[in-house]
Amino acid sequence: MSILINKDTRVLVQGITGREGRFHAEQMQKYGTKIVAGVTPGKGGQEVLGVPVYDTVKEAVAEQQIDASIIFVPAAAAADAALEAAHAGIPLVVLITEGIPTLDMVAAVKEIKDLGVRLIGGNCPGLISAEESKLGIMPGHVFKKGKVGLISRSGTLTYEAAAALSEAGLGTTTTVGIGGDPIIGTTFKDLLPLFNEDPETEAVVVIGEIGGSDEEEAAAWIKEHMTKPVVGFIGGRSAPKGKRMGHAGAIIMGDVGTPESKLKAFAEAGIPVADTIDEIVELVKERLG
Amino acid sequence: MKLHEFQAKEILAKYGVPVPPGKVAYTPEEAERIAKDYGKQVVIKAQVHVGGRGKAGGVKLAQPEESREVAGKILGMDIKGLTVKKVLVAEAVDIAKEYYAGLIIDRSSQRVVLMVSKEGGVDIEEVAHTNPEAIVKYPIDPHKGLRHFEAREVVKQAGLEGNLNRLANVIVQLYNAFVGSDASLAEINPLVVTEQGEIIAADAKIDLDDNALFRHPDLAKLREVEAEHPLEIEASNYGFAYVKLDGDVGVIGNGAGLVMYTLDLVNRAGGKPANFLDIGGGAKAEVVYNAVKLVAKDPDVKGIFINIFGGITRADEVAKGVIQALEEGIVKVPVVMRVAGTAEEEAKKLLEGKPIYLYPNSLEAAGAIVTMVGGAK
Q: Which of A176, A231, B49, B169 could staple A127 via S-S, CB 3.0–4.6 A?
């Protein structure tokens, strides 16, 4: 079991004929992801990596059964592509593209949510259900099947945490990289209920970072509802105020987004916070007894 | 990207917001000429990308005959580390009331949020602290935009006094300017009601969304590279996410999260990072070489810590780039490296016998680099 995707999830790749899209589509196929079609406007009728390419998502869903779409189109067209997938009725849309104009996301996120579609990202590494299916750009081999759900605003740091959990024999169920932008489709608190109900997930690791208040909102939800142990981590604790640390969303503005506020929220919710990646593993082990 | 006050006012004026007549001067003589043209009291304002100009003495009223002297004092002044190179000379406004109107992108509600307050002319963050009820916040539906009646309701609720329709007009125009220029923040502070009942934006601030600059080539041109750190300019030419910091440990890594974590580890070990540098995903040797070259060039850097977790990025590509930089002799400081993940073994083989300190984990590597640059501070 896992959340959101499994070995049977049938996947569409938007932007499959582009350099990034093609490369990662192939990597996903190698991992075992069921890629059934691609979309690139103007390239309909071609075949790429053994799957048909359509001009529009509408055509793709008319001919194929599609459960999820992953998007690799350039930033200027990315929000539009996500809207296209949502309007075509695809229930899960993963937006990998980085550098999308923020107001495009403000408009798209609202519309996509109104349609009842789950959007992950943008500017995210995607998600992976270990040894089943990968809808993203992460190195699949570091994710061993296990019992920890992982949610993160970061990419590389997540791989590092997954590798450490795997090495320690704990492994992961599903890992979701929610993205480093200020406006994203899915936040920590949206995913916690899914992990809470997933029978195979025994503990959840939340890898947050400075900026925004997603961690505080997650902590509030955990305090009220979560029945499984949660371990936290906050990246960028030493970052100066007002400077964007790589991720567009990793910035402390005035009093909002400070590590102190996040650590306090976690402490109040009884969530232990790891200072290092190794400590994440220790704390999970401890909590699982 | 931050804009200067005069640039923000130009944008607002284009959308119909009334702003006081004003021109930019680069010399005291120019300032005097502009003031004499207006023939009345002016306000001379430092144009630098930093808040608190007034408190620092960078904003002064002057009669035309004093304007040369006053401008001369402000030009060349240092405000929070930035030298004032130009001033805005604007007609002084007859202030009856000072209000605040601003728009931000709010992450929690995922909307553009309008903020209006009776408490204008002061730092709004201060008001948010001391008197949060004085700020009315209104999330705007992105598909409907801000309608006039909504602006009227907010103005009313915030208790602003003056011509309701005209106040609401200015707020709708501010919203249109925000959306039209893809801003991430737009403020009028103070929004002045004059003795004559006119409404005027006496000061304005606009930050633009860097991700959207591609569709505003005219605004993208306003970027002032001389206002940025030279290493930040060079880094942006290479496409690196780079932030100059004030310590002495150069930090390079792949992925923003990992680099932030690496900064934290250096701090934990008692050290101070000199920079944040993310080489991004899938970097080839040349990219890594450029990153090392850039960080090594920083005179503050006494040691470099390279932290790599190979995913899409191959650790051996990173090693090749580092080795090339070392062999060219451009690195005069110790280099500590930690590599793991994809192609870790190949990387370690390549690095064997090279003049770098290789550590199996980030924690030990952080401790080592801090010792090498002279220990905890």
A: A176
Query: What are the pLDDT digits (tens) for A148-163?
Result: 999 999 888 999 999 9
Cβ of residue B364 closer than 8 Å to a chain A Cβ: no
**What is the arrangement of strands in the sheet containing B22-25, beginning at the earlier edge strand?**
B22-25, B87-91, B42-46, B59-62
Asked if A102 lies within 8 A of B105 by C-beta distance, the reply is: yes
Rounded to whole angstroms, the Cα distance separating B266 from B272 reads 6
Instruction: At A227, list the tokens.
Output: 């029945």
Half-sphere exposure in the Cβ direction for B138 (13 Å, CA): 24
Q: How many CA atoms lie within 13 A of B146 on its CB side?
A: 29
Which structural domains are found in chain A, ordered by start?
10-121 (3.40.50.720), 139-288 (3.40.50.261)
Q: How far apart are the C-alpha atoms of B64 and B34, rounded to whole Å? A: 8
pTM of structure: 0.92
Q: Tell me if A106 and B110 make a contact (CB, 8 A cut-off).
A: yes
Q: Considering only A249-263, B111-125, B322-336, which range has the smallest mean pLDDT?
A: A249-263
Taking 3-state DSSP, the helix, strand and coil percentages for chain B, each rounded to the nearest 5, stand at 40, 25, 35
- Whether the CB of A278 is below 8 Å from some CB of chain B: the reply is yes
**pLDDT over threshold 80, residue A256:** no
- φ/ψ (deg, to 5) at A119: -110, 130
